[in-house]
Write a structure and sequence with these properties.
single chain, 40% helix, two-stranded parallel sheet, alpha+beta, globular, 4-stranded antiparallel β-sheet
């Protein structure tokens, strides 16, 4: 709260945190103790209190967080928490994917800049994703530059672009020439900050990748139907998915159509050949 916490108050708050933090074991304890020194401070956390756990979070090889599950007012602190979590994962090779959620970090440009610099030095690999390059500067120009300036590789998909310090007319011409063939391949343009790499890349998806990574609306209905009806006959879900993919992408698709056509009859599911 910039109105109530000027430079002096922020300094006093930091001093108190440093003094009491060693004796705290949970976040709630910390807030309650700070509330004694700064009356009403706990009210700032009223919206977030139901999302705080006292359980210790274990490091996991894959951690997925959907920010849509949280009130918008607490998305920024959640992202900052996740960045600190990422920094402390005890593995040198690690990847962080930022899918548009960076737009909630307005006024945190210096923190993001420091994070991205730290990641690069440690060998960690952060990836920031957005629908278009211009999105990085719409919300906070300084924040956008903190991300783009610290990104050695940039990958462009078809979009409207104008020449600037980042992109030349040559680059834009390459982006405008990108093509795809549905279900077969798609192209993107890879460019490095020092222009050592400036090339079009064609990505071919395997049948499994095509089933798991497509974004076509309703495209997963048959897969989910297969898992619902036949998943119980497999030891694991991955095995069931692999079987579905083999059946669907075989040249002779008779078997695939046999087991993926369902109809409800009198409350029961009937399999149609």
């Amino acid at each position: 709260d910039k109105e109530k916490f000027g430079k002096l108050e922020k300094g006093r708050l930091l001093k108190v945190i440093k003094e009491i933090l060693p004796g705290m074991s949970t976040f709630k304890e910390l807030i309650n103790r700070l509330d004694e020194e700064f009356k009403g401070l706990s009210l700032y956390f009223e919206e977030i209190k139901d999302y705080i756990t006292e359980q210790e979070l274990e490091f996991r090889p894959i951690l997925y967080v959907d920010i849509e599950n949280f009130p918008k007012g607490i998305v920024a602190p959640i992202i900052i928490y996740l960045l600190e979590y990422f920094k402390n994962i005890p593995a040198r090779e690690k990847i962080l994917v930022f899918d548009e959620c960076w737009s909630f970090l307005k006024d945190h440009a210096s923190y993001i800049d420091e994070c991205f610099r730290t990641f690069r030095k440690s060998g960690a690999f952060p990836i920031a994703i957005s629908q278009a390059m211009k999105d990085f500067s719409i919300f906070d120009r300084e924040l956008g530059q903190a991300i783009t300036n610290n990104s050695y590789f940039k990958v462009y998909f078809p979009q409207e672009l104008t020449p600037d310090n980042e992109l030349s007319s040559f680059d834009i011409e390459r982006v405008n020439s990108l093509g795809y063939e549905k279900g077969v391949y798609s192209e993107c343009y890879l460019k490095s900050s020092d222009n050592s790499y400036r090339k079009i890349i064609r990505n071919y998806l395997s049948p499994l990748e095509l089933e798991l990574f497509h974004t076509e609306a309703g495209g997963d209905e048959k897969l989910m139907g297969f898992l619902e009806h036949f998943g119980k006959y497999f030891k694991t879900i991955p095995e069931a998915i692999q079987s579905f993919v083999r059946l669907k992408h075989e040249q002779n698709k008779t078997d695939y159509h046999f087991i993926t056509s369902f109809k409800k009859s009198g409350g029961e599911h009937v399999v149609h050949a």
